[in-house]
Design brief:
The protein is of the alpha+beta class. It has helices spanning about 15-20, 25-35, 110-115, 150-160, 245-255, 280, 310-320, and strands at about 1-5, 40, 45, 60, 80-85, 85-90, 140-145, 170-180, 185-190, 190-195, 200-205, 215-225, 230-240, 290-295, 305. The chain is about 20% helix and about 25% strand.
Length: about 325
Amino acid sequence: MKLFVTNDTASQRLDKFLVQMLPEQSRNRLQDWIERGCVCLDEQPIIDTNYKVKDGQTFTLTIPALQDSIPKAEILPLDIVYEDDDLVVINKAPGMVVHPAPGHYESTMVNALLAHCGDSLSGIGGVKRPGIVHRLDKDTSGLLVVAKNDKTHQALSEQFSNPDLGKQLKRTYWGLAWGHPLPSQSKIETPIGRHPKNRQKMAVVHGNSGKESVTHYTTKQVWNFGSKGEMKLSWLEFTLETGRTHQIRVHCQHIGCPIIGDPLYGKKTLPKARLVPDRVIQFERQALHAVTLSFLHPHTQETMTFEATPPEDFLELLEALNTFL
């Protein structure tokens, strides 16, 4: 599909241009198509939704194939931390996919929520993502909030996307990482965008192709291995200002301290692996857990704060490391 930029449509963001040209499509869907590389200029994908279109440009849109199936309700275990008429807070188990996606159309958290909430689940997030306000990666455990009606979904989405409206929003994560970041407490502030060569990965990028991404970290504990402490591991606490895809994992790789067990951003070679416990090498997922979540309840206007203990595998890894103190 060819889309032509005229003087009337020039100088606006790419996603807004597409909304104007394709009013039958939702903005969220068009943004997803941009980020998936479906919009090209001179045969080059433009994956930045903020890209400013120019008069005379011609974009080619390739609409991806859509799944016909609507997620079905499945009775699956959910660790529900809190629930009322407007929302539900869940402590997601590692290994559970949040919403249906290629390769994972069943046994997701959305399937379980449809069974638990029934017709009350908000549909404003799209057919495939009913009620989903934010997400956690498949193998990241911890807290997330789901909306049960449209009004709540809109209000929570604004808190997550607009810092001025989300002053009560706070997300804290625990992660176990290779190395020891210096300084021990700091802020990582770099743009994140789609990896230029691997579409499954994100990366720290420069120019207009990335989105502002800010992660604060504090070192809770450091373990030293080897006679001279040449191999270090760290327990880090992260607080997010922004919520980009794979943000903590990308930022940790960027500062040279990738999350233990991370299959995408972790260490590929471990020359000093013999110095650390076998359980570290054998850990089968990224050691990352969303430990606290605070937000303003859209209906009661009360600040809600929740905390979730990490799952057993995370705690066992901590215990194994502490035996070396």
